[in-house]
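Sanity check

After download, print the first record. It should look like this:
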Amino acid sequence: MIVLKPRQPVPALDVETLQGQWSLAEQAPKNFTMVVFYRGLHCPLCTKYLKELDKLTSEFVDAGVSILALSSDDKARTEQAKLDWELKSINFGYGVSVEQAQSWGLHRSAGKGKTSTGIEEPSEFSEPGLFLVRPDQTLYWSQVSTMPFARPHFREVLGALDFVVTNNYPARGELV
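Expected C-alpha cells:
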C-alpha cells in the first residue's frame, strides 16, 4: 500500500466534477487545496460530514483553501448525493478509479448490501481520506481511514489552518 509523505509531491489527480473537468495540477489556491475523498451516496456518515463542510466552505475559501469532495460513485449517484444532502457550495468529483484511490493510499472496501439509509453500497468503493496539498503539489497533511467513523472535524481543520498559516508551521511526518 502506498503511503503519501508530507513535503513530497502528491499523485496527479484529474477527475470529472459536477462543474466539469478538474485537475489538481491546475489549482492555484493561496494556501492549500483540500481533497476530501468520501465513501459515496450510500454512506450516512458522509451526509453529516459533507454538510459540515458545506456550511464552512466560505470560511475555507477565506482561508485560501480550494475544496474538492470526490468518490468512486458515478455521476448520477453524485448528483443524487448533492441533491439529497442539500449541499450548495462544494465542488463534487466522481468516478475515482481503483488506480487513483490506490495512488492516494486510500483503503478500499467491498459492498455489503444496503446501508441503514436503505441505499445499496457499490460493489466496491474507497474509504475516507482528507488531504491538504500545497500549491506546489506537495502534501502538507493527510488523514486516511479504514472506516467511516471518527473523521477530522472541519471546524478543527479551519482552526489548525489559521495556526499553520500564521506561524508558517512546517509539514510534519516527513521522515521515513
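If your output differs, re-run the checksum step. Summary of this record's structure: The first strand starts at residue 14 and ends at 17.
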